[in-house]
Amino acid sequence: MDFSLLPVFIAITEQGSLTKAAEYLHMTKSAVSKKLTALESHTGIRLVTRSTRHLQLTEAGQLYYSWLKKAHQAVLDGQDALSRYRSDVDGVLKISAPTVFGSLHLAKLLPEFLQCWPRLTAELVFDDKLTDLVGDGFDLAVRIGELKDSSLIARTLSPCRSVLCASPAYLAAHGNPQDLTDLKEHNCLFYSYFQAGQTWAFLHRGETVRFTPQGNYRANNSLALHQAVLQGAGICQLPQFIAAPDIRAGRLQALLPDYYLPEHHIYAVYPDREYLPNKVTVFLQFLQEKLGSAGHYQQDYEQPLSVNV
Fold first, then answer.
1. Which of 1, 27, 133, 260 could covalently link to 138 via disulfide, CB atoms 3.0 to 4.6 Å apart?
2. Three-state SS annotation for 232-243
C-alpha cells in the first residue's frame, strides 16, 4: 500500500474539502483528488461522497478515519520519543490556559521561558472552557479546579485560593456581613462558569454550608467582576491571584473570617504519552519553578489573607 495516501485522506477529512486539503498540503486539487481515488481503489470501498459543493464521509470513511487518526498520533508520538535523544529544544509548543490566569500570570512568564529556549516557538491559547488537548493539538494545558478527564496526566503546580470580598465604599454604604445569612441583604456578583453550579460553598466549623447568591450582575470573566467589585457594585468571590494585591493595598476587604472557601489547585495537564517531548519536559520544569512553593507566585498570591471584621 502507498502510505502517502493516508495523510491526504486525513487532511481531506479535517479540512472539509478537497480545495482546503490541497492548500493545507501544498498540493494541487487534482493531485489530492487522484490520491483519494487511489485510496478508495485500494480499499475497494467508497470513503467520501463528493459533489460540486459538498464533501461528506461515508460510514466506512468515518470508521477508517477514526483508526487512521490513532495511527497518525502514534507516528507523532514516535517522533516525539526520538526528540528526547536530541539536545536541542525546538518546534512549536501549543499551550491552553484559562483566560484570566493566563493573561495575568502565564503571559508574563512566557517571554522569560522563550529566552531560555530561542529555537522554540510558543502558541498560547486562552479558553475558559475545557479544550480537547489531543483533538486540538495541544501539548499542554494549565487548568484550575476539578479535573474530569482521567486520560490526562496532571502535575500540581500550586494551590488556588479564593476570597469573598467587597470594596470599603460598598461596605460603608451597606454594612459588613457577619454571618452567611447576612449575604441575603447584599448584592452578590457571580461568576457564571463556576464548576460547582449556581451556589457558593463554604467550610464552616467542619461542615460544608451553601449559599445561593442573588444580585444584579454576573459575568463569565473574573476581571469584569473584579472591576465591578472595585467600583463598589457588590460582594464577590474572586480568586486570590486577582484580588490579593487589592486586599493588601486596602482597595478591597476580605469578608466572613469563619467561612472558608474551598481550596482548589492549579495543574499542568498533558496527554498520556510514554515519552514526553523535550519541549514539554522543560516547560513543565519551568512552571514548577515559577508557580511551585519555591517561586514568588505562591508567596505573592496564594498565602492566607487577613479578614476585616
1. 133
2. CCCEEEEEHHHH
| C-alpha to C-alpha distances, 30 to 26, 27, 35, 239, 308, nearest whole angstrom | 12, 8, 9, 55, 72
pLDDT of 126: 93
Task: Specify the higher pLDDT residue, 156 or 56.
Answer: 156
What pLDDT, in 10s, does the model give residues 130-161? Answer: 777 877 889 999 999 877 766 788 999 999 99
Residues 42 and 73 in one domain: yes
Cβ neighbours of residue 227 under 8 Å, at least 6 residues apart?
Answer: none
Query: Is residue 176 within 8 Å of residue 258, measured between CB atoms?
Result: no
**What is the rounded CA–CA span in Å between residue 9 and residue 38?**
11
Q: Is 18 exposed, middle or buried (0-12, 13-18, 19+ CB in 10 A)?
A: buried
Q: Which of 103, 98, 100 is nearest to 128 (CA)?
A: 98
Question: How do 235-239 and 188-191 pair as beta strands?
Answer: parallel
Q: Which residue range forms the structural domain that includes residue 44?
A: 3-82
Whole-angstrom distance, CA of residue 213 vs CA of residue 11: 48
**Are residues 154 and 197 both part of a single domain?**
no
Mark whether 18 and 96 lie in a shared domain.
Answer: no
Check whether 57 has a pLDDT greater than 60. Answer: yes
Using CA atoms, how far residue 153 sits from 48, 69, 115, 201, 284, in Å, is: 36, 21, 27, 28, 12
| Closest C-alpha to 246, from 309, 299, 167 | 167
- Higher pLDDT among residues 257 and 86, named by residue: 257
Over its C-alpha atoms, the chain yields an Rg (Å, rounded) of: 25
Could you tell me if residue 200 is inside a domain? yes
pLDDT of residue 309: 43
Residue 49 has pLDDT above 90, yes or no: no
How would you classify the pairing of strands 91-97 and 140-144? Answer: parallel
Q: Do residues 230 and 245 share a domain?
A: yes
pLDDT at 156: 95
